[in-house]
Amino acid sequence: MVKSKTLMIFAVLILLFTAVGFSGCLGGNDDNATPSENVTPPENITPPVDETPSEDVAPPVVEPTEKVNVSTTFDGDNSVLITIKNKRYSSTSVSISTGDAVRLWSREERNFRHIFQSEENAFEDFDLIPGYFAYLTFNQPGTYKIDMINYYTGEPHGDAPIVLTVTVT
Q1: Are 122 and 35 in contact (CB under 8 A)?
Q2: Are 164 and 148 in contact (CB under 8 A)?
Q3: Of 104, 109, 112, 125, which Cα lies nearest the Cα of 152?
Q4: Which one, of 50, 53, 34, lies nearest residue 126 by Cα?
Q5: Kind of pairing, strands 142-150 and 114-118?
Q6: Which fold has domain 64-169?
Q7: Taking burial as the number of CB atoms within 10 A of a residue's CB, which of 28, 61, 81, 102 is the most buried?
Q8: CB 108, CB 84: distance < 8 Å
């Protein structure tokens, strides 16, 4: 009786550890995480002051370093949802205001990843796996084109690139 009870407890413990191990609770797969890009602004370096002032000295033009912020969260009020399914955007063009975001949601089949590129180099390329979101917050007015590229080949899907046009006013 005691022997069978001990054997039963041992079997339940083995089953429990096996279930926990296969569920992924012992460690996550960090390769499947959607990256959150944190752009560090460049340092503002003050040039040395020339002792002899020139008459035609113009102040340096400072280009904003962050046209589009890519992240996995959005704290603003307005975002437009664009879903991705069957290698297509749910809409190919959208108009938003400065400071608003476009939320990309991949609804592709399991393990089908895309790379998103800005034709204007407004953000660094990023990939998105099925079931995850990416928020693109647009900080400057303009027209932005976002290409969807096959993650595995680095080429467009089909003969022509799949492009989302975002107009920011």
Answers
A1: no
A2: yes
A3: 112
A4: 34
A5: antiparallel
A6: Immunoglobulin-like (2.60.40)
A7: 102
A8: yes
Between 53 and 67, whose confidence is greater? 67
Q: Are 114 and 151 in contact (CB under 8 A)?
A: yes
Whole-angstrom distance, CA of residue 161 vs CA of residue 73: 27
Please tell me which residue, 132 or 22, carries the higher pLDDT value. 132
Confidence of residue 39 (pLDDT cuts 50, 70, 90): low
pLDDT at 40 over 60: no
Asked if 90 contacts 84 with a C-beta cutoff of 8 angstroms, the reply is yes
Q: How far apart are CA 37 and CA 8, in angstroms?
A: 50
User: What is the rounded distance in angstroms from the CA atom of residue 143 to the CA atom of residue 39?
Assistant: 21
Residue where the block lists tokens 């962050």: 66
Q: Is the pTM value of this prediction over 0.90?
A: no
pLDDT of residue 27: 43
Q: 101 forms bridges with which residues in the sheet?
A: 79, 137
